[in-house]
Amino acid sequence: MTGDDERRLARSREELEAARLLADRGFDAQAVSRAYYAAFYAASEALLALGESRSKHSGVIAAFISLVVKREGVEEEIGRALRSLFDHRSVADDGDESVSSERADEALEQASKVVAAVERWLSDQGD
């Protein structure tokens, strides 16, 4: 992974750390939201590495699954995790339902997997 890749993924790592802090303090809905953004920024960076970008969240997710997961061979589980995070972030942000600490922990795990997978994939691109 190049220095540019490291800087690009810094935002993902910051969001992941913020999600952990929020979850530790019992702010579960906010933790789910920040976990999603950690994964979203990582997915966006993967697309940028391919010379692609999308203006809407749904477009980033669709393009990530199509281009990075299906075409570039990143594990399908990573695409499912990103989509799941998006769905759960919408519920968390709407505030109509309470978010459990278990859901926040699951979101942190999923986001960590997405960020790590993108880091590995970007590293492999430099080889």
Write a structural description.
Helix 2 (about 30-50) packs across helix 3. Helices cover about 80% and strands about 0% of the residues. The chain has helices spanning about 5-25, 30-50, 55-70, 75-95, 100-125. The N and C termini lie close together (about 10 Å). The relative contact order is 0.20. The radius of gyration is 14 Å and the shape is globular. The protein is built from 5 helices and no strands. The model has no long low-confidence stretch (mean pLDDT about 95). It has about 130 residues and is mainly alpha-helical.
Give short descriptive properties of this protein.
127 residues, mainly alpha, 81% helix, globular
Short description, anyone?
The chain is mainly alpha-helical. The protein contains five helices and no strands. Helix content is 81%, strand content 0%.
List the helices and strands and how they pair.
Layout: H1 3-24, H2 28-49, H3 57-71, H4 76-94, H5 101-125
Helix pairs in contact: 1-2, 1-5, 2-3, 2-4, 2-5, 3-4, 4-5
| Shape estimate | globular
- Percent range of helical residues: over 70%
Number of helices: 5
Question: What is the rounded distance between the termini?
Answer: 8 Å
- Please identify the structural class as seen in this structure: mainly alpha
Summed over residues and divided by their number, the pLDDT gives a mean of 93
Uncertain runs are none
CA gyration radius, whole angstroms: 14 Å
Helix-strand pattern, N to C? HHHHH
Main sheet overview: none
Number of strands: 0
Strand content: under 5%
